[in-house]
Design brief:
mainly alpha, homodimer, Arc Repressor Mutant, subunit A, DNA-binding, 7 helices, two-stranded antiparallel sheet, 187 residues, elongated
Chain lengths: 187, 187
DNA sequence: CAGATCATGTAACCTGTTACATGATTTC
DNA sequence: GAAATCATGTAACAGGTTACATGATCTG
């Protein structure tokens, strides 16, 4: 249940609403985990039933009342227990590689177009990490003074950058190899 | 529906049963897609309803009858249509990075133990790719004479290797950075 | 005046995992 | 004698996505 533990993680920084939590996902960890509001709200209710959170209502007039969630000692305990638990390598689900694996069935131009498109998308993602995300991490460290935490935020960002660079290099290599197959097979 | 298209892909090589297909998953593409038999069997039925497959029964005495699936022209068309369709970057779900992101909440020794464990698992996976999987690809090329296809099988394997190497390097880097934080913060 | 922001949810649906059900033959 | 191999499934459950429902205020 990594979603619940991510929610506990953010709530260990400060009390928040479901809506606030969604924004934290979208602004910081979206590139390795995300969730829709329609999943977050029921999850928070179940977490409260488990005793991991308490809820405080902030009454408002023209909008739905804000429900502010606070982490409990049990919640902090659960987060740490989960963090210390041995972690399996997570299984990958990569539809694009299925397309490539069966690429021999496709015209060369089609598969090359796919690879070039995928490469462009990963380049865009990489640019976003360098510009937007790195900046967001730094701002957060300055705003909150959480210097030690900032190191860990930076580490996950390093992984994101490395991942995109890996894809880009692989796409280049794949394009080269495919361009040279038919030449070799014709000799 | 990448599962269905992976099934179409294998059936485009030759007619097979659900059981055979499961073995192809386990022996070739398991590192970027897999499925249980309990998902494959109903999927094949729905694909037959769609007209992508036909089914032929091979009667047996002491075992359930073999149901051999053949791809139809509609099936080949659907596979190609899907392969040519623009592909989004697939979203990652990486619970381990959640543990790291909130690693500031953990004792240094705990998070280092996690990183060392994760690194070992990825090293094992990398060894398997080098030894087992590369060999399986070569054998398959020799057995079937599908030289051109073999290039594409090799490409996906390259990605697998690159992915594991990326993790290993990142873990090393992360361990170094974490070991040096508390020293720096104490100055 | 259109779209983003704030703020909560429910219901239907799809995908994937786990558990259950059956059972002979071959290998260690 | 236990475990793997061959061969088929169904049912319950968990996680995640999409669509639906409501509605005021702020920004361009």
């Amino acid at each position: 249940m990594p979603l619940k533990h991510a929610l506990l993680g953010f709530l260990s920084y400060q009390p928040m609403t479901g809506y606030d939590l969604k924004q934290h996902f979208d602004r910081s960890i979206y590139y390795f985990w995300n969730a829709k509001l329609s999943q977050i709200y029921p999850a928070l209710n179940r977490m409260r039933e488990n005793g991991w959170l308490t809820m405080e209502v902030d009454y408002q007039e023209d909008r739905p009342n804000r429900k502010v969630y606070h982490i409990t000692e049990a919640g902090r305990g659960e987060l740490q227990r989960w963090q210390q638990e041995p972690t399996d390598v997570s299984s990958i689900r990569e539809p694009f590689l299925i397309k490539v694996f069966f690429g021999g069935r496709l015209e060369q131009g089609e598969i090359l177009a796919q690879l070039r498109h995928q490469m462009r998308l990963h380049q865009e993602q990489l640019t976003a990490y360098h510009e937007k995300v790195r900046e967001a991490v730094q701002q957060n460290v300055e705003a909150t003074g959480m210097v030690r935490e900032g190191v860990f935020w930076g580490l996950t960002l390093d992984m994101g950058i490395r991942y995109e660079q890996g894809w880009i290099e692989w796409c280049e290599e794949a394009i080269d190899k495919i361009e040279s197959i038919d030449k070799e097979l014709m000799q």
